[in-house]
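Reposting from the mailing list since nobody answered there.

I have sequence plus structure tokens for a pair of proteins and want to know whether others read the tokens the same way I do. The first protein:
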Amino acid sequence: MSASFEQVRVRVLPDGRVSRSDAAAFLGLTPKTLADYKSRGIGPCPRKVGGRVFYRLIDLEAFRDTGAREA
């Protein structure tokens, strides 16, 4: 059985923040799905900086690996 993986490029800022679109690509979701997760209180915990939504890479990894919502 052969597994196929797609490499995804994600831009991580020096402080570990990732934009919503890059976070969605990292998780294999759409940005709209992440916005829906935010409104329902599930998924990785978003941070708002200057009116824009970001996610911490460490939170994305925890959500990907365990489904945990980090605060």
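The second protein, same order (residues first, tokens after):
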Amino acid sequence: MPPPPSQAGHRAHAGQTRFAMYAPEFAADPSRFYTQMRDQHGTLAPVYLDPDVPATLVIGYQTAVRILHDPVRFPADPRVWQQGVPAHCPVLPMLEHRPNALRNSGPAHARYRAANTSALDHVRQHELQAMVERIAIPLINEMCEVGHADLLTQYAQPLAFQVLNAILGCPPEIGQRVALGMAAIFEGVNAEAGNAMLSEALSELVDLKRRHPGMDVTTGLLSHPTQLNELELIHQLVTLYGAGIEPEQNVIANTLLLIVSDERYSGDVLRGSLSVRDALDELLFVDPPLANFCVSYPPRPVEIDGVVLPAHQPVVISMAACNNDPAVISDQRAGNRSHLTWSAGPHGCPAQPLAYLIAQVAIEQILDALPEMELAVPADHLTYRPGPFHRSLTGLPVRFPPSPRLTLT
């Protein structure tokens, strides 16, 4: 019988201080902490995801690749770990077992992933591009004549939210509760209540689609030959919303920040020598929107890079730190997609072509409409929401010459 997770948590880094990833100081400057971790611990750093949740953060690129391709020693099933975690733990909703592909291994993972990839395959990229443009133009029209805006709250957030609702066939009133519940889970603030709100809203969506099927991903999940039950359907949607709102709005906002604040891009993208896709690739390397995730739970003590990791304790991949590992970092990011932002191995994100397309079209639309926009505050005055997992601005204020409204073609 393995020791409870709370007792097994210090075997890998006995007597060493753990980094508090939940702290506001970490959110303000994670790169500084990754450097300290690397200097003190090499590729594996002892961290706290919450004051009562010890974990190991993987900050070496090659080490992360080995772990992500080794589901036997590093499975994604957290059920033994969570036995020792109180229900009110703020990071539990992000880490707990769910009947979906993200939190299972072996045949169960294969079954859930098959249903998800099949449903996502029904999304046609040319139709998605037109959808993003239709959603982007009214959002741009709400700000273009004013001369200033918050690109996070007025553009990236509502665009990601509306696009995903359309893909999943979700009415706005249900989707709004989904978005609120998901935000609480990512931030770890009222996460237990947010988790309950999320499940209730998605149950309503499943019931709606049973009664009124459509040409959408939720209907595709309902009709898949795996015959997912009610609970399984809800938790496939949890995964899709978790990947489709928070990370998507962050990749749009963070890439826009890169373009308007970094002279290499603000000039070159607008002149055409670099593309929005190049800026996206750079952003996904240097500042991925989901910075630390891809969690596994070794079922027994396992040695890697000379460190024995304890059984049943979270092992978290830092995509942000691994992408910027000095051992593999390159000055050439444009067109380079070797980053781990979409994970790798059996749990690699199946929706990445869609996520890329949504972000690219959204960014191109607003750059075309407001090419002279610039930050309204110095870049070092921008702030980030706390939380161990995401890299999320609290706002992205910009100013620009007022422009006429756009028309839908």
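Reply #1 (J.P.):
I read it the same way you do. The first strand starts at residue 19 and ends at 20.
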